[in-house]
Amino acid sequence: MEDCIFCKIAAHEIPSTVVYEDDLVIAFDDLNPQAPVHTLVIPKGHYADIVDGVPGEVLAAMAHAVSEVARIKGLSDGFRVISNTGAAAGQTVMHFHMHVLGGTDLGENLL
Ligand code: AMP
Ligand code: ZN
After folding, report:
1. What is the pLDDT of residues 70-93, one digit of tens each?
2. pTM
3. Mutation to probe ligand 1, out of 40, 91, 94, 111 (largest number of atoms < 8 A from CB)
4. Closest to 48 (Cα-Cα) out of 83, 20, 8, 14
5. Across-strand partners of 21?
6. What is the Cα–Cα distance from 60 to 110, expressed in whole angstroms?
7. Contacts of 66 (CB under 8 A, 6+ apart)
8. Rounded CA gap, 86 and 94, in Å?
9. Quick count: other Cβ atoms within 10 Å of Cβ 73?
């Protein structure tokens, strides 16, 4: 989609620190990390959010990418996956993404 920053990252039109990539998804480090490890997993196709008709095959690829990020980043102690959905959740980039957060004790709080 034109003017979507994550579509441009998926197409390698703007730079990112790529952690994992396959045909369907790409994972890259967040520009403004909220934890020692903060990586975003996105589908290469444009979907606004997790409830925007994302095909099961793409969701499976996202889950696989999350496990690859955890392995590559050494998050064997645990990590958190968040997908902000819509304005009320604070979604700022309207291209479906999962935050993978870890590398520290995240505690029991929600975020
Ligand atoms: P959300 O608030 O859930 O929509 O999260 C969007 C995330 O994208 C934020 O954590 C931003 O720091 C991150 N972000 C925005 N632009 C970029 C970029 N060019 N490269 C990496 N991360 C980005
Ligand atoms: Zn997009």
Report:
1. 999 999 999 999 999 999 999 999
2. 0.97
3. 40
4. 83
5. 26
6. 24
7. 41, 81, 98, 100
8. 8
9. 20
- Of the pLDDT bands very low, low, confident and very high (cuts 50, 70, 90), residue 111 is low
Q: Which two tokens stand for residue 111?
A: 């975020």
What does the angle CA 1 – CA 72 – CA 21 come to, to the nearest 5 degrees? 25
Residue 86 lies in a domain: yes
Average pLDDT, the chain: 96
Q: 72: domain CATH number? A: 3.30.428.10
Domain that holds residue 13: 5-102
- Ligand 1 pocket, residue 84 CB under 6 Å: yes
Q: How many domains is the chain built from? A: 1
99 assigned to active site? no
Q: Does a structural domain hold residue 109?
A: no
- For the four alpha carbons of 37, 87, 111 and 78, in that order, the dihedral sign comes to negative
